[in-house]
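Our preliminary data section would be incomplete without showing what the modeling component actually yields. Below, a chain of 403 amino acids is followed by its predicted structure, encoded as tokens that our downstream tools consume directly.
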Amino acid sequence: MTSADSQEFLALFGAERRPDPYPHYRSWRERHPVAAVAERMFVVSGFAEATQVLREPAFGHPEPEYLDPADRLPDQPVDEAGRVVRGFLSLNPPDHTRLRRLVAKAFTPRMVEQLTPRIEEIAAELLDRAPVECDLMTSLAKPLPVEVIAELLGVPLDDRERFAEWSHAMARALDPPLLQHPGTAEPAIKARQSFVAYFRVLAAERRREPGEDLLSALVAVSDAGDVLSEGELLVTLTLLLIAGHETTTNLIGNGVLALLSGPEGLKPLGTEGENAARVLEEVLRYDSPVQLTARTALRDTTLAGLEVPENSQLIVLIGAANHDPATGPSPDRFDPAREPGRHLAFGQGIHFCLGAPLARLEARIAFRELARRRPDLSLAADPAWNPTTTLRGLSTLPVTNGS
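Predicted structure:
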């Protein structure tokens, strides 16, 4: 572990580095696989060290804070003791174990797999409607995941546009405070308030008249008499929205850009997209839609043989760790023929992404349909990146089908 200047760390995420941060990550990682950038604040960029932080119970999350009623934001879910209700990604056992188990009973692999025909249909319809020259983010990468998560939750068709707007506003506020752009907090708060108010009404409707959707399943789920409270339901829905929409949008966009930036375009996918699953794993490693995550040291512990005091904050640079030579040869090269190896795109340990099967399914289908319907796709202009760090993705991806 070494000490590093906090300004040097912040410079990793400058706008000029956004198109390709990985050479800068490599330089940082080689010098500072674990670095103290401020008092009780560490940055972890080595693959082995990041894996340790994500897997070991010594690293977790601070306990939910208590809020006086006068300090609560409108519609902010709190439990009976006045603690802020959090999604299971921000909880430690046993709270994490209980809540994730309940959600997993509703959000089952079978439910995800049953979506396959509908995802194929949506992807095909979107690509058939897209003009020869288009912004692939607007034509496919953004609408596909929001359509899928909205259908999964049973959101009426007319409400899906604002559904996507809420997701985007909340996602922009996920960056750590030291990396957050001014002006992102207020729109995110308003979006969360609108989202919570909307789903309070929709959840009440599903209690009266259950359907076949995930929202109905979450409302009804129980485990030995244990059920989701209203606050737990609402924060779980917020998590599903952002994780099920923003990250998958970024995964599709980042993957297509990586392919089109290579000499063969979409050809590595195969004529029928038969190689989509393998290519997808390389995209997840090479340009992960989630670039960083945070943990707290729950006790005095060690990392790479060095002391990490209790309550220290750790920022895990997933994007840097996935380019560590420990993941395989030539890690800074996008190789769509690479055999799937190790990466941290979906996390590790108890917080491994519950929605990983759905994200993989959607991206795999999107890549496959592109190979079938737009085999000659190429870049029409330079893409533009979203001004966020935690979630890495494109705002525009101009393409042409070359015909």
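The chain has one domain: 2-400. The radius of gyration is 21 Å. Preliminary results of this kind motivate Aim 1 of the renewal.
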